[in-house]
């Protein structure tokens, strides 16, 4: 009999995802957001996917790496967008509006409410330093853009980032993305939040802001590919 290549699944795939890695992340998202980090084991995640625990380690070396991957997936796209926005001659208002819309869109587009992970006590641990550094960097970008609009001494410069995180409370955690990502539209809550941020800063809303934001995001995607 020929040797079996790789480790077989214990049963047919039962998670959302085009690859085993995506299925693992989907299962981990559900377990982490519902049960927390400490009480979720790699065995639990593997069982939810329908694979052997050893197979999970082929894709992720540890539970911590799965958790960090989920966290960074909510931050890195906005950091990439911010980097590209910095190279444009768009106004601070346009850049800030685009970042609020982009970050809130990410939080609204995942199957499970991954933003809930921000609130878990385990995140005080230094083992998630990469997440903390990325989050601080993104907060500073939001704050810097707001400061360009209202000045460094205005206490409102801290509001845009935290207003964006309201998207976490504006969705459920049922395993179905309330607003799947599409190329030609933004979730209504993302537009509402981005508009509200500029309103709080008492600055006019940019013309064609949705179209301009989507164009910028598409440009980033093309450059990455």
Automatic annotation (TrEMBL):
Residue span(s) of domain HTH tetR-type: 18-78
Entries under InterPro entries matching the protein: Homeodomain-like_sf (IPR009057), HTH-type_TetR-like_transc_reg (IPR050109), HTH_TetR (IPR001647)
Annotated SUPFAM superfamilies: Homeodomain-like (SSF46689)
Keywords linked to the UniProt accession: DNA-binding, Transcription, Transcription regulation
Gene3D superfamilies assigned to the protein according to its UniProt record, in alphabetical order: Tetracycline Repressor, domain 2
Biased composition (Basic residues): 7-18
One GO molecular-function entry: DNA-binding transcription factor activity
Record-linked PROSITE patterns: HTH_TETR_2 (PS50977)
DNA-binding region: 41-60
Keyword Transcription included in the entry's annotation: yes
Region spans: Disordered: 1-20
PANTHER family recorded: HTH-TYPE TRANSCRIPTIONAL REGULATOR BETI, HTH-TYPE TRANSCRIPTIONAL REGULATOR RUTR
Protein known as: TetR/AcrR family transcriptional regulator
Taxonomic source organism: Corynebacterium lujinxingii
Lineage: Bacteria, Bacillati, Actinomycetota, Actinomycetes, Mycobacteriales
């Amino acid at each position: 009999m020929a040797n079996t290549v790789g480790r077989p699944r214990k049963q047919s795939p039962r998670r959302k995802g085009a690859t085993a890695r995506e299925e693992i992340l989907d299962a981990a998202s559900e377990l982490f957001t519902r049960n927390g980090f400490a009480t979720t084991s790699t065995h639990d995640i593997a069982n939810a996917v329908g694979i052997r625990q050893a197979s999970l380690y082929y894709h992720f070396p540890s539970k911590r790496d799965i958790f960090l991957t989920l966290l960074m997936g909510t931050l890195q796209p906005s950091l990439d967008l911010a980097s590209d926005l910095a190279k444009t001659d768009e106004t601070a208002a346009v850049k800030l509006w685009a970042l609020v819309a982009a970050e809130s869109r990410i939080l609204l587009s995942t199957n499970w409410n991954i933003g809930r992970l921000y609130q878990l006590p385990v995140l005080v641990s230094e083992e998630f330093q990469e997440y903390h550094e990325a989050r601080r960097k993104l907060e500073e970008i939001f704050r810097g853009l707001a400061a360009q609009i209202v000045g460094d001494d205005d206490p409102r410069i801290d509001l845009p980032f935290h207003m964006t995180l309201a998207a976490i409370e504006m969705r459920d955690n049922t395993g179905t993305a309330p607003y799947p990502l599409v190329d030609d539209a933004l979730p209504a809550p993302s537009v509402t939040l981005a508009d509200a941020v500029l309103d709080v800063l008492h600055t006019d809303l940019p013309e064609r802001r949705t179209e301009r934001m989507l164009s910028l995001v598409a440009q980033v995607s093309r450059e990455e590919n």
